[in-house]
Design goal:
The complex is a heterodimer of chains A (317) and B (106).
Chain A: H1 2-28, H2 33-52, H3 58-63, H4 65-85, H5 90-96, H6 100-111, H7 118-137, H8 140-166, H9 168-172, H10 176-207, H11 221-224, H12 227-239, H13 241-254, H14 257-263, H15 267-280, H16 291-316
Chain B: H1 13-19, H2 23-26, H3 38-73, H4 77-105
Classes of the chains: A mainly alpha (317), B mainly alpha (106).
């Protein structure tokens, strides 16, 4: 239980850092979200594979359908977060991402037959209220696209956690190198496929611009040749992302899905602290962030903590 | 059991016989060596031999188990190839990408 909580907190730290850096990248460097995330994931996969060294479970990992579904969901989640960051601050995005709490309870009940206890039911009320108020606080002109990407990201995040919890190769991996190797292969396969798909799309876009009209979000050759995308992605992929991915995989394996989701409620405050530091350094502007957002966010965290306490009490008895 | 014999070390039956301690030490529950009588000494010898055979079989079984565990940890050629192809593939992609950026920048 405690190991799961520590791993989850470490995941939160690296996620907060990576979210703020993603915001910086999207605001200051004009990077293409899909391309940027795919490249960052590919570089972090390289770091994980180098840490792990050659060994077993590679072939089985590639053969497992869990790998493909997890990897796809992971890249999709990161991309939708990147799109959401265009509209809202990283702190608001992380508060709204707590939609994972009620959704994970619902999905765990439907698919995994895990019944919510009374603490879950009490805690979920302030969480829902906080989400509602923060959602209505988003400026009206950007509310619909912002909420679309935020909900999309929350659903992808839950699916990721659920698949990670049942990934056979990850569960069978007992030592750190094997776990890092399995994670590396999982991330590599899907990010490489996404990059290849984006490159084909860019080629198609350049060859038949009329046919690809309406797909403005797809990258072009110019996006591939943006040095900021490459340099920032390589830097982020080498430094922050491998740790964030590795601890996430570990935490979802050790802690139960719900516990991980509850602790991840603290993420917005970590993100807020980092955003504040970045804004002091002149790298970010957080004028969009309102005091009421933080107050309603506290309501979400309070609800989530009630649920964590309930889980802990339930495990002790 | 001989002091030289350890878990996981392959010991041939012939060597086991050579290094085996005296029957009384190795098999305390076996019948004491007879001081007289052909049948009794034959029976004692037979019992000792059975003990050695059983021990040899047990060692073989243990060795097989260790070998299975070792093979599980040891990557196959396909696993090693996959690893190096993945690592060098990513590095090559990044180098080519960086190269194109440098050429375009020039």
């Amino acid at each position: 239980m405690w190991l799961g909580i520590v791993l989850s907190l470490l995941t939160m730290f690296f996620w907060a850092l990576s979210d703020v850096l993603l915001k910086v990248a999207s605001v200051h460097f004009d990077v293409h979200p899909v391309l940027f995330i795919s490249l960052t994931s590919l570089v972090s996969a390289l770091v994980l594979l180098l840490i792990a060294g050659p060994g077993t479970r590679g072939i089985n990992t590639l053969r497992s359908p869990h790998t493909w579904s997890y990897g796809t969901m992971n890249v999709v989640q990161d991309m939708s977060q990147m799109f959401a960051l265009v509209y809202v601050t990283a702190t608001v995005m992380n508060f709204m991402n707590r939609l994972t709490i009620p959704l994970s309870l619902l999905l765990s009940f439907i698919f995994l037959r895990r019944k919510p206890n009374r603490y879950d039911l009490i805690g979920v009320i302030p969480v829902m209220l906080g989400l509602w108020f923060i959602g209505t606080n988003i400026s009206e002109d950007i509310r619909i696209p912002a909420l679309f990407w935020l909900v999309f990201s929350a659903v992808a995040s839950i699916l990721c956690a659920m698949i990670g919890e049942t990934h056979p190769e990850s569960l069978a991996a007992n030592d750190i190198p094997t776990k890092a190797r399995v994670t590396g292969y999982v991330v590599m396969t899907c990010s490489a496929c996404f990059l290849l798909a984006m490159w084909i799309m860019a080629a198609a876009k350049s060859a038949m611009p009329e046919a690809i009209q309406g797909f403005g979000w797809l990258p072009t050759y110019e996006d591939f040749l943006n040095p900021s995308t490459f340099l920032f992605a390589v830097a982020l992929g080498f430094t922050v992302m491998p740790f964030a991915l590795y601890f996430f995989f570990q935490a979802t394996r050790v802690a139960k899905n719900e516990v991980f989701m509850m602790i991840s409620s603290l993420l917005p405050f970590m993100t807020f602290a980092m955003e504040w530091l970045f804004s002091k350094a002149g790298l970010l502007d957080i004028y969009q962030l309102k005091t009421t957002d933080l107050l309603f966010g506290t309501l979400i965290v309070a609800g989530a903590l009630i649920m964590v306490y309930g889980r802990h009490k339930h495990q002790q008895t | 059991m001989s002091a030289q014999r350890k878990k996981g070390v392959v010991v041939s039956l012939a060597e086991a016989r050579k290094t085996a301690p005296a029957p009384l030490e190795s098999h305390p529950h076996s019948a004491p060596a007879s001081k007289s009588g052909y049948l009794e000494s034959w029976y004692k010898e037979h019992e000792d031999r059975q003990g050695l055979i059983q021990e040899s079989l047990r060692t073989k079984k243990e060795n097989a188990e260790w070998e299975r565990k070792y093979n599980e940890l040891k990557p196959t050629l396909a696993e090693r190839s996959l690893y190096y192809i993945s690592v060098f593939g990513i590095v090559a992609t990044l180098l080519v990408w960086a190269g194109i950026l440098v050429i375009e920048g020039l």
